[in-house]
Amino acid sequence: MLSTGNDIVSLNTINVTRTKQPNFYSKILTPTETALYKQSRFANTPFEVFVWLLWSIKESAFKFLQRIDTDILFTPVKFEVSEIQIPFGFNLTDFKPIELTGIGFDGIHTIKSTIKFDDLILYSNSSIYQEFISTVVNGVEDFSNTHWGVKQIDSDEVAFQSAEVRAFLIDNFKDNTSISIGKNPFGIPIILKDNIEQPIPVSLSHHEYYIAYSFQLPV
Fold first, then answer.
1. DSSP code of 45?
2. Confidence of residue 163 (pLDDT cuts 50, 70, 90)
3. Which one has a higher pLDDT value, 39 or 154?
4. Which residues in the chain belong to E strands, given as ranges?
5. How distant is the alpha carbon of residue 151 from its chain centre?
6. Residue 179, SS3 per DSSP
7. First-to-last CA distance in the chain?
8. Which terminus of the chain has fewer Cβ atoms in its 10 Å neighbourhood, N or C?
9. φ, ψ dihedrals at 41, nearest 5°
10. Quick one: pLDDT band at residue 139, thresholds 50, 70, 90?
11. Measured between alpha carbons, how far is 162 from 50 in angstroms, rounded to an integer?
12. Which domains does the chain have, with CATH numbers?
C-alpha cells in the first residue's frame, strides 16, 4: 500500500480556551485517547497541544488513505491513536532553522504513534516545536523511503503558501528536471515529470507561516 500523508498545524493560531472544552475536543479525541494523555509522558505538555497533535496525526492518516480510497470521509474519532511513544525527556523547543528536510526519521526525536482505522494499521512520526506540529504517516513502521520537509515562509496568503510548498518539494527532489506538481481528478497532489504522472505519492500541507511535504519512493 504505497501512499503518504502529512499535516502541519501552527500552534500560534489555535484557540486554547476552545480546544480545552469537551464539546470541542470530543469531536477529535476518543475517550481512550483522552485517557492516553493522562497515562503518557506528556506531563510538561499542555492538553491543547496534545489535542492538535492527534488532529495532525489523524489528518495525515486521512490523506494517506484518501489516495487509496477517494470516497473516504474525514471523521477524526474514527481514526484512533492506539499507541504513542514519546522520547525520554521530551520538551517543546523553538524551531530554529528556517527549514528542515530528511529521509526517514532515524536519529530524530519524534513522537511515534500507531493509528487504527477499521481493520487497517498505520504509523506516524510527529515533530513538535513551540511554533508548530508536523506529522508524516506511513503504512509500515519503516520510514526509510519517506522524504519530508518543513519550512517557515514569509506570508500566510493561501496562493503564496501553495506556490512555496510546491517549490520547496521540487527543490528537494533528487531528479527535479522537468518536475512539476499537479492534481489528479480527485484533487490529490501528484508529481509530474514532463507532464506524466509518476508512481510517487506526495502529500502537501500548509498552515499560517509553515509549509510541509512528504513523498514516498517505491522500494
1. S
2. very high
3. 154
4. 5-10, 80-85, 99-103, 111-117, 120-128, 132-138, 146-152, 179-183, 189-193, 196-197, 202-207, 210-216
5. 13
6. strand
7. 11
8. C
9. -90, 40
10. very high
11. 27
12. 5-216 (3.90.470.20)
Length in residues, the chain: 219
* pLDDT single digits (tens) 3-24: 999 999 999 999 999 999 999 9
Looking at the predicted structure, is the pLDDT value of residue 46 above 80? yes
C-beta neighbour count of 31 within 10 angstroms: 9
Cα 170 from chain centre = 18
At CB < 8 A and 24+ separation, what contacts does 105-111 make? 105/136, 105/143, 105/146, 106/144, 111/53, 111/84, 111/85, 111/86, 111/87
8 Å CB contact between 136 and 125: yes
C-alpha cell at 104: 526517514
